[in-house]
Amino acid sequence: MNIYLDYAIFKYMAIDWTKIYKKYRGLWVALDEKEQKVVAFDKKAKKAFEKARKKGVKVPILFKVPIEIIPYVGTPFRI
Q1: 35 part of a folded domain
Q2: HSE-CB of 59 using CA atoms within 13 angstroms
Q3: Which of 19, 20, 21, 53 minimizes the number of CB atoms within 10 Å of its CB?
Q4: In this predicted model, what pLDDT tens digit does every residue of 32-66 receive, in sequence order?
Q5: What is the residue-wise DSSP string for 44-64?
Q6: Cβ(2)–Cβ(23) under 8 Å?
């Protein structure tokens, strides 16, 4: 694997999404640039984005929290 792929996998594995899932199921959440804090949420992505921008986050990271967690086995990368 290359160093960037290793970093990306490690970075996203280190975040615990369970609290976000329990509280914001089915909603769009806007995270701060460090992906550490939910700064806004809404049923619509555009509104979550606008709320985050109003709170001073220049580039919010949007994430649609699934209603149900379904196990996935596989990889999105081609080897």
Answers
A1: yes
A2: 3
A3: 19
A4: 888 878 999 999 999 999 999 999 999 899 989 98
A5: SHHHHHHHHHHTT-SSPEEEE
A6: no
Bridge-based pairing state of the strands 38-42 and 61-64? unpaired
Does 77 reside within a domain?
A: no
Number of domains in the chain: 1
What is the value of pTM for the model shown?
A: 0.68
Decide: helix, strand or coil at residue 20: helix
Question: ∠ at Cα 17 (55, 46), nearest 5°?
Answer: 40
Tokens of 62: 């949007």
**Closest of 56, 69, 57 to residue 24, by C-alpha:** 69
Q: At which residue do the structure tokens 């914001």 appear?
A: 24
The rounded distance, in Å, linking the Cα atoms of 54 and 1 is 40
Enclosing domain of residue 19: 15-64
